[in-house]
Amino acid sequence: MKQLKKFFVFFPSFLTFFIPPAARAGDVMLNRLSNVANHVGFSTVDTTNRAAAQRAAGNLIGDVIAAVLSFVGVVFILLIIYAGYMWMTAAGNEEQVKKAQKIIRASVVGILVIALAYAVTAFVGGLVGKYLFQ
């Protein structure tokens, strides 16, 4: 159980700190390749496909975020089911009942955090999409 807790603490941190630099690194690499292509004599300006590519990248990022949040939400639901099973099979063991209640409380808080994260992501994504892809 401790390893599972560590995973759910460190995996979102990993996503938070390593995905944005990777995206920036991709932009830097694309700019360098464009500079080399321009220097050689190839044109890299294609305005019709660039906007579509940016929209596709935005959709991909949104899909990845939605998939990760959905996965974490499913894990919290499974934790609630597990805690409910623990509580039902406690057979009068108060320590096991308290442990199950603690897991249920933590899972409900986790689901609320995931729902809030999804709402914030959808709101910010909508604003970014509105102003970036006009």
Order of helices and strands: HHH
Number of strands: 0
Question: What sort of overall outline do the alpha carbons produce when their principal axes are compared?
Answer: elongated
Strand content of the residues, in percent?
A: under 5%
Number of domains: 2
What is the straight-line distance between the termini? 47 Å
Low-confidence stretches: none
Structural class: mainly alpha
Task: Tell me the number of helical segments per DSSP (H or I, 4 or more residues long).
Answer: 3
User: How would you sum up the major sheet?
Assistant: none
What would the average pLDDT be, to the nearest integer? 75
Portion of residues within helices: over 70%
Rg: 22 Å
Task: Sum this structure up briefly.
This protein has 3 helices and no strands. The protein has helices at 2-40, 47-88, 94-132. Helix 2 (47-88) packs antiparallel against helix 3 (94-132).
